[in-house]
Amino acid sequence: FTKKGKPIHKVSVPDNMALLSAIVGWENLFAWYWINPIRMPSRDEMQAALTHSRVVGIKIHAYWHCLDPDQTKPVFEIAREWNLPIYLILNFGWDRKIETLLQTFPEVQVILGYAGFPYFDRIWKIVRSQNHVWVDLTSFHVDENIILAAIRQMGPERCLYGSDCPYNFRGSRGQFDYAKTLDRIQKLRLGSDKIDGILRGNAQHLLFDTAIAR
Fold this sequence. Notes:
Distance between the termini: 39 Å
Low-confidence stretches: none
Order of helices and strands: EEHEHEHEHEHEHEHH
């Protein structure tokens, strides 16, 4: 991993507990528990995190950790056991196996990050019939044309706003700018109910309303 020819430090073991400690004083902040299946945390550590009141689900970044679908199965099994959703950012080489993985774990709600990057519509055609799969609309990988195409194919009720904060979309002072991510959703001509669903309601239902049932 490089940026402008310089190496980027690649975190192999995400420090989830430091993040949870940092947000514990903020009632409106929640976290995904990020697992690298190549460096699985201990059972006790996972239990402490997955029962934390601020954890809404499990994150797998297959691109960052260079994972193939089979390597993520232990994490999907954990999500199924704890009845938690998974936020999944795909890697290259997943297009032929993702359908099998999702069909193996129909009980696990899955959000595909970056609208299913790097496959987009190829993935949407596979997963749109699987009601436990969602997409978010975030990052520089996703432009307004991709956002509209995802909404048309997946339906607005299966699409979630995402910011990719603190990366990308910087304002005049070089700091992350939420306004840029919100604007491209708010200006869509979908009607206020659908816009509200994408920006808030769908995530509320998936991460919190259904959590009460769990």
